[in-house]
Specification:
2 strands
Length: 301
């Protein structure tokens, strides 16, 4: 069983190759301009836990698939996640100047270029997955099913839908528990759920496996967001690598604003138990996912 760090090294090595590296000042027809390459790679190379792509690879391994064949799909998930962070930090959204311990993309490259860097990462993500599918036509149905899952998680009923309602509730200073569930399911949990579902599709797994990974991804994603909300109150900027305390200052709807600190901690415990139940069927083979959700309960960054 590979560790999270081992999967992350695989992802990072492949991300050194995609998107393309363009030399300073180079702008030729048929290639992206150097400035776009620089701004995309600036945020993509900023580090981070690489949780989402690593979980996709671990799920492929769990189901007996070929991890190397899934690597471009994992990298696509990380590119989509990074694009969402670039846009999330923009003045029209969360208006943040620090991400992963360094100035946010729009602070370095300007708002317009940051928007385009996010757009570029989203498009390259799908180009990368489609290129992988085209290279293996014998598995086209499985690859297309996986691409559809990732598109759904990142799309208007998933991450984007959750972000829309997050902004609406913040700007109107309204919302309750039902709104919070919608926001955190879409904005956070879907980008755990659907990469795991994509892993199952890549492996041609049984529907029981799809449902088990869906349940785990939902519980894990909601737990991850609940601990993130707690750390915005109790964490340190040095550990988190981003500005803290902004949720309360901006009137954002969070687990802490709805349930309080202790209620959020109880929610974390319940979601932890839910995630463990979802992977019971795998026994020792599910140790990666068991250890991962255990670590999330006590995370400090």
């Amino acid at each position: 069983m590979n560790t999270l760090n081992e999967y992350a090294r695989m992802v990072n090595a492949r991300l050194e190759e995609i998107p393309a590296v363009i030399d300073e000042g180079r702008c030729e027809i048929g290639q992206m301009p150097w400035l776009l390459s620089q701004s995309m790679r600036y945020s993509l190379s900023a580090g981070g836990k690489r949780l989402r792509p690593c979980m996709l690879l671990a799920a492929v391994a769990l189901l007996g698939g070929n991890v190397n064949d899934a690597l471009d799909f994992a990298c696509a998930v990380e590119m989509i996640h990074t694009y969402s962070l670039i846009h999330d930090d923009l003045p029209g959204m969360d208006d943040d100047t620090l991400r992963r311990g360094r100035p946010t993309n729009h602070v370095v490259f300007g708002q317009g270029q940051a928007i385009l860097a996010g757009d570029g990462l989203l498009n390259v993500a799908f180009e990368t997955m489609l290129n992988a599918a085209c290279a293996r036509p014998e598995g086209a149905a499985r690859y297309l099913s996986a691409i559809r899952e990732i598109a759904t998680g990142a799309g208007v009923t998933g991450m984007i839908g959750g972000q829309v309602m997050d902004l609406r509730c913040e700007r109107n200073n309204e919302g309750g528990e039902a709104d919070l569930e919608y926001i955190q399911y879409g904005k956070t949990a879907c980008m755990f759920i659907y990469p795991l579902r994509a892993a199952a599709r890549l492996c041609g797994a049984a529907e029981a496996d799809v449902q088990a990974l869906t349940a785990y991804g939902r519980a894990f994603g909601l737990l991850f967001q609940a601990t993130d909300d707690l750390l915005d109150v109790t964490g340190t900027q040095a550990d988190m690598g981003k500005t803290l305390g902004k949720d309360a200052a901006n009137g954002k709807l969070t687990c802490v604003s709805v349930f309080g600190v202790e209620g959020t901690r109880r929610r974390v415990g319940a979601l932890h138990a839910e995630a463990l139940r979802a992977i019971e069927r795998y026994g020792e083979r599910g140790d990666f996912f068991r250890q991962l959700v255990d670590a999330m309960v006590d995370r400090t960054k």
